[in-house]
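hey so i finaly got around to running the thing on methionine synthase from Molossus molossus. pasting the sequence first so u can double check i didnt mess up the copy paste, my clipboard has been acting weird all day
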Amino acid sequence: MSPPLQEHAPSAGVKKTMQDEIKAILRERIMVLDGGMGTMIQRHKLSEEDFRGQEFKDHARPLKGNNDILSMTRPDVIYQIHKDYLLAGADIIETNTFSSTHVAQADYGLEHLAYQMNKCSAEVARKAADEITLQTGIKRFVAGALGPTNKTLSVSPSVERPDYRNITFDELVEAYKEQAEGLLDGGVDILLVETVFDTANAKAALFAVQNLFEETYAPRPIFISGTIVDKSGRTLSGQTGEAFVISVSHADPLCIGLNCALGAAEMRPFIDTIGKCTTAYVLCYPNAGLPNTFGDYDETPHMMAMHLKDFAVDGLVNIVGGCCGTTPDHIREIAEAVKNYKPRVPPATVFEGHMLLSGSTECCQSTGGNGSPGVGYQHG
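ok and heres what it spat out for the 3d tokens, dont ask me to read them lol
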């Protein structure tokens, strides 16, 4: 059972922020994130009619596969999935908004509903989290998920035109601004920029979020999760884990880590590396192993829990959960496996006295012993 939050009450007269609440828990124990949303939606075997509902029964384009619209047309299904994860032991659930920008929804002709879709999804998750908080007496949190979109700023979609981009930074900022507004108006506690395969896209999301916090909304904790696409240790746009961390640390995330693409065993060395180059807390929510020939995930709840238990034993993580192929059964075993282990203690400083730069790799500049600048590459 988690430590009661009142044990970490702020000084008299000081209002406790959401960042304070979550940080207090992270100092005491390893928190648990939920598992795959798409995996669970597939188990419901929903039809085109389920995705359309009454509101979109005459919509011109097929909607089956647009999981995010289910928060509007089948909120009962999404609510139950959230509830199942919470009852399995998740402290934090993610909103069903991975593709809820107007950029991604344009494929379905629903770009005009982006704000409404995000707000509805946040409200469904909020309802589930609040109900289980009341039922168990343990505070549960909602993370508003901001996915990578189906566009990329760093890579051209045309082999013939390597200079071409099908979206601009400003267009992505506007899309993420609208998404974040819907999530915040729906009541999320955290904003999670996740599955980052192109750091330029993530920077657009972070810029939008930070502007909202400066101009309109009370700040919420920011979580950032990148995706290392294979054992080379790089994102799809070519960055190493260290370079990725350096690129987004200006946003002062409460948590940073990795999700998707890899199973826990394959992800371990990259989580280890990230933990050594950040003062933030570390989150890790891998897939249930690597996909098999049929695209399915074979890692059982017990197998995955044992991998993440090893992460906990070695002090690598602060938040664990699951991504593709994971279910409430996975989360239940993961929560049980890590509950008795102390969380990672973030270092007070990293690379103190150095100027850190990054492109596809990281560069560390420091002052040499004779007072002159020295430049070198810093690896893990």
